[in-house]
């Protein structure tokens, strides 16, 4: 396997540098995206839950774009939330349209007790355009 190839969005928020991780890594024709939260540019969460979820998806879109991908390239989604009863209805009302045409990606949703001040996080795996290692 070759070296890791990191992907960054055009305007990364502060959490990547603050906590020392890459937004995404390209490997073997796939893009492994770190968990995306509703972080503002300074790394703080959006106070409104709906805005936090929307910003997490916007942050995901920016990371995908950094690799030349779109939400339609996502094949697997993992959702983490500290408040499933509030987040999941909100999520399921809007998320299918985000991914594009069917079939939708595989999805796992998990309730957790801690997300460093956030209530929602999503982690995805996407296929890279033309099964390439670099964008």
From TrEMBL:
UniProt xrefs under InterPro entries: RutC-like_sf, YjgF/YER057c/UK114
Protein name: Enamine deaminase RidA
SUPFAM superfamilies: YjgF-like (SSF55298)
């Amino acid at each position: 396997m070759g070296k890791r190839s990191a992907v960054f969005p055009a305007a990364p928020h502060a959490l990547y540098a603050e906590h020392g991780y890459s937004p995404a890594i390209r490997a073997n024709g796939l893009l492994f995206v770190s968990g995306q939260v509703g972080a503002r540019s300074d790394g703080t969460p959006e106070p409104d839950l709906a805005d936090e979820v929307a910003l997490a998806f916007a942050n995901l879109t920016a990371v995908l774009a950094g690799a030349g991908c779109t939400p339609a390239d996502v094949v697997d989604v993992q959702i983490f939330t500290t408040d499933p009863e509030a987040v999941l209805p909100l999520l399921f009302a809007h998320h299918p349209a985000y991914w594009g045409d069917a079939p939708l990606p595989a999805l796992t949703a998990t309730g957790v007790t801690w997300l460093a001040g956030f209530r929602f996080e999503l982690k995805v795996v996407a296929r890279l355009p033309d099964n390439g290692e670099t964008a």
